[in-house]
Design the sequence.
């Protein structure tokens, strides 16, 4: 397990859905998670196909499966969950992101978690997992994450 990311909180066995926000270094969070559980991430499409491919190849080195948001993604995400993979979603920029994460977890009968990552000194990170929740609690957590930005209080 890498020393560059400290994980605080309980990580259940996959499958599960984990939701976060665009704060901190979410690619580092995904890499840290992927070293512990099989992981699939949902990402927005990008106009630069070379950059998108580079990011996918980089994630793949950690065993991360990338689903690009093109066409219907819900069936692909459900398939990943049914294959025993965790799904990581950043839900703060999509008006339906919180609801979508909750519906996905409920449809697959898997836990819905939240978490966020913050930078520490000397190129290290801290990933905090806030445990299982429902849609309402996820919404409250996401709002707190947005307000806190990159600040992550001690455990």
Sequence:
């Amino acid at each position: 397990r890498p020393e560059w990311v400290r994980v605080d909180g309980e990580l259940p066995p996959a499958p599960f859905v984990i939701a976060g926000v665009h704060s901190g270094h979410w690619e580092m969070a995904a890499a840290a998670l992927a070293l512990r559980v099989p992981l699939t991430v949902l990402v927005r499409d990008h106009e630069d196909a070379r950059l998108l491919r580079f990011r996918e190849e980089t994630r793949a080195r950690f065993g991360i499966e990338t689903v690009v948001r093109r066409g219907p993604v819900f069936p692909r995400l459900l398939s990943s969950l049914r294959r025993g993979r965790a799904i990581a979603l950043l839900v703060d920029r999509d008006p339906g992101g919180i609801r979508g994460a909750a519906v996905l977890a409920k449809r697959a009968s898997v836990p819905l978690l939240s978490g966020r990552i913050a930078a520490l000194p000397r190129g290290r990170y801290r990933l905090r997992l806030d445990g299982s929740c429902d849609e309402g609690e996820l919404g409250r957590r996401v709002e707190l994450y947005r307000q806190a930005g990159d600040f992550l209080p001690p455990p």
User: Anything to note?
Assistant: Residues 135-148 form the longest helix (14 residues). Helices lie at 26-34, 49-60, 74-82, 97-108, 135-148. Strands lie at 5-8, 17-20, 39-44, 64-69, 86-90, 112-120, 124-132. The mean pLDDT is 89.
